[in-house]
Amino acid sequence: MQGNLPTRAIMNGQVALELIEGDITTQATDAIVNAANSSLLGGGGVDGAIHRAAGPDLLRETRQLGGCQTGDAKMTRGHKLPARYVIHAVGPIYQYADPGVATLLASAYRRSLELATEYQLNSIAFPSISTGAYGYPLAEAASVALRTVIEYGREHARPALIRFVLFNQSILQEYQQVLLGFLQKNWVDPA
Ligand code: AR6
Hints:
Elements: E1 8-11, E2 15-21, E3 31-36, H1 45-54, H2 56-63, E4 73-77, E5 85-90, H3 100-118, E6 123-126, H4 138-155, E7 161-166, H5 169-184, E8 189-190
Parallel strand pairs: 2-7, 3-5, 3-6, 6-7
Antiparallel strand pairs: 1-2, 1-8, 4-5
The structure holds ligand AR6.
Ligand AR6 binds at residues 23-25, 35-37, 43-47, 49, 91, 127-134, 165, 167, 171.
């Protein structure tokens, strides 16, 4: 607990959910997730940071993938990163009053988790997809993100650790508020 806000929860007695403040490029989880665009050729924000830290071989690899649709994800190796793999997920550009954006954001998280399960990964770290350049309001995005990973973690044993690496204290607190609500509804158990 940090203040009165939670940083951890457990799904189905076996999958841990963690919220931390930090830089995702430093994470030594089996995979880190990139908030990519559909070209998969790099960009700013977390995408730029991941490409810088991984080195130019990452771009060589993503060039071979032929892009990625919004709401989908594709995996590469981590190259110079501490994480073994990068899962490049493409979230939606936010549009007010378009209910489709929530479905696409949920899909970007779910497809990332499906790849982690398929490759039998134990741990995955997510950034807050779509909430920077793509303009998704943070509280709404945090609610979609946590609901999606909690639903997944209740149904799958792997990955056994799902971590959100949030870039500053105010983003972390927004996710903590949403997690508190889900703990109060007993959607997840305290850890
Ligand atoms: N570690 C963790 N989180 C980070 C980091 C980092 N090193 N750097 C930024 N963030 P954004 P999007 C946070 O804009 O909204 C790119 O150009 C940031 O504070 O990276 O999905 C892509 O190529 C914010 O909370 O991703 C796409 O074109 C969150 O990561 C487009 O931006 C997401 O912000 C994708 O936009």
